[in-house]
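Example 3.2
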Amino acid sequence: MAPLSRRSFFKTGALAAALPLGVRAAPATAATAGAAAPLAADLSWLEGAPALMTGTTFGVPWPRGALRKDQAFTLGGATAIQSWPIAYWPDGSLKWTAHALPAQAGLADKLRLRPGAARSVANAPAGQAMTVSERPDVIVVNTGVIECIIPRQGGEIVSSIRRGGREIARSGKLVALADDQPDGSAGSTRQTSYDSRLARVTLEQRGPVRSVVKIEGTHRTVGGDSGGSRSWLPFTVRLYFYAGAESVRIMHTFVFDGDEQKDFLRGLGLRFDVPLADAPHERHVRFGGENGGLWAEGVRNLTGLRRDPGEAVRKAQLAGLPLPPIAERVDKSLHLVPAWGDYSLSQLSADSFRIRKRTKAGHGWIDAAWGRRAPGLGYIGGTAGGLAFGLRDFWQRHPTQLDIRNAHTDAAQVTLWMWSPDAPAMDMRFYHDGMGMDTHAEELQGLDITYEDYEKGFGTPVGVARSSELTLWALGATPPRERLVQMAAAVQTPPQLVPAPAHILATRVFGNMWSLPDRSTHARARIEDRLDAHFDFYRNEVEQRRWYGFWDYGDFRHAYDADRHEWRYDVGGYAWANSELSPDLWLWYAFLRTGRADIFRTGEAMVRHTSEVDTYHLGRFAGLGTRHNVQHWGCSAKQVRISTAVYRRMYYYLTADERIGDVMREVLDADRKLDLVDPVRKLANQPPKGPYPVLASFGTDWASLVANWMTEWERTGSTRYRDRILTGMRDIAAMPRGFFNAERMGYEPETGRLHNMIGTGAAASHLNAVFGAIEIFDELIALTGDKAFERAWLDYCELYNAPVEEQRRRLGKPHGGTDALYLGNSRMTAYAAWKRKDPALAQRAWKEFEGKRPYPPFVPARVAGSATLNPVTEVPYVSTNDTAQWGLAAIQNLALVGDALPST
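Structure, written as tokens:
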């Protein structure tokens, strides 16, 4: 497809969707909406231009019909760039592109991406050209600075990392430790060691700036080549290489597939050997500390001795530089100065880490230092080179650990522990014994009192996953302290480029449901201020309540207990939120409109959590997610409304992250699991399914599936998933009452057909629109132009919150839906008002937003003394459900009917 000229592009109305009425920061007519989507994108760094740039990847959207598939891009100046498509509009034009920049310094705070001939990395400064060689036994990647050898089989994920002809690290493998019981209280505990075994190695991307190697395998009993060997804990590791980089980024994912009653993980890590050639007093150990601090010592320290080796010697050793001649009296006795071979930095809580060291195995540990929050960076090496290594979210994902062993020998061993072996074993058993709930009636009684949807055997962790980000630097010498501090900062907060909010908005890639912040009137400013206050409160709650830990970090709690001044962390379905009522979407729309780095990072942590921990990746429930519970996997409601791509796709498109891409692809056929876990299977007197394999709701089921299929359609142009969507759209539109017949439909997974089960009746649920349906349907209507589907959806939007008399007049009876989410569902009224250009509906939407009861002021209060363990700032009535739905309604109502909002 040839690119359209700007004149013909705007003349033909390629951006046919008009901007919502409430947009003020961007023009508000269809013609000027096109003009607001220039074929160039302003970019900025989330946290400012990075001091250390190891390479980065980012996504950029483009307006419909503007750019052909093979369009090249330039960032201008001397910056090399690699580009590739990650999503397409229905006409085949580019919707999203991904871009990679090499490792380089001196990039500006603001950059501009535009179509044009890309600068070739071959013309980059010396040492920045990347080469990749595929051989039958190995893949060799050379960034121009380091060379990495990746075997295709065996137990090593990396066999060697070299720099300047010298081997910096070798024998990289995954390691795991597992106990057969959680502790020794019931007798002796037997521990088994495992390491990695490769099943498949794929060169996933081969480019001049960025190359990616994907490694899949399992953990196998160490030394277990016999028939009794166990293979479990499947993993996926991606190695990311950037031209000119002296580092390798690693994304590690594992899936738990053991028996939670017998398998208690004691340690999970990545291990390398680091050859050492320098004398022990010219070998250096470094650990990053809090707020730019650094713990720095020599393997054999020359400071503090009874005899002075010389001031120049002491200063050089502290700086990690080659040593000048040592005073003779000290030099002749160096063999009597202890060499410390083993070091550990363990972060067992969010608020404390400890550094220990010992001379060698078989001798006692001594405490070296204590601190609060380590950034997760370590280093071992000397004047001849060394390895720096880092684990992201180190203190946030406790218990973690960095180990250096045998630093006094000719090869140190480094282990980055994603679960620390110094911590208690990972205990994933369900938290209660069922309390006598053996029938559905008893389970419903439990649901009534604790809001926990319990069912024996359903609270299993088998199939949940966790991904971790690691970075390795192969260095030619011990770096300056300031450089290591920069590395620690890059590990904790990798540099990220993002398009300007105005550019994203103008392209309409995420539909019409948001606008830029506007404080031009008192009423608008009041809503904007409250939006900010809600996010700031939750950002602070993560810290105040310590919502950290390996399995927990990234999630919010669901509901608050004002009597205890504590979230209901131990009360059934009121504990972890697990995406209930779309806090994920609230965060991402808040980021899209503001560009705030703190919102992005909070949303990023939530995506990493909910896509891995709250979603099953193998086993009985693969493709489904788990409703809110005390444990993330504890609820028996396994639903597509949790695993849906609608909560991941914004992050994916902004970052082109392959792991999130994997997860969204894993759920494509989740519809085949719906009959296994019918959400209403426990309720008596349900209507028969009839001839259909599945009974599905349009909101909590079908819309979630549509988000999965639509994302795949965007990413690949798949006609299979496009047609599945169109089939369902036609079926709903053809029902006599449209969406009011779709509350409970017969569904055929083989064909995608939907069937009316209630004839000419009408039914509705307050939950149907609050798991991404509103947002996805807006995009679908724009993508497909299906007018019949649009009319059916607008009728539903207009009538859901309508007075009962209006419902009866239009439907023949009230639809029966509750007003539990009356305020949140005001955005459906706003959508109908915008589409139908109905001022009365717009005014009704704002009245609904005000609620049937006054929404209390959001004023945090301080509670201290004996009422709480620690002083806390609380909002007693706070609820994540309400916060997310209020936030989405505020954002969307402002975008759609902002002009109808009273000015005061």
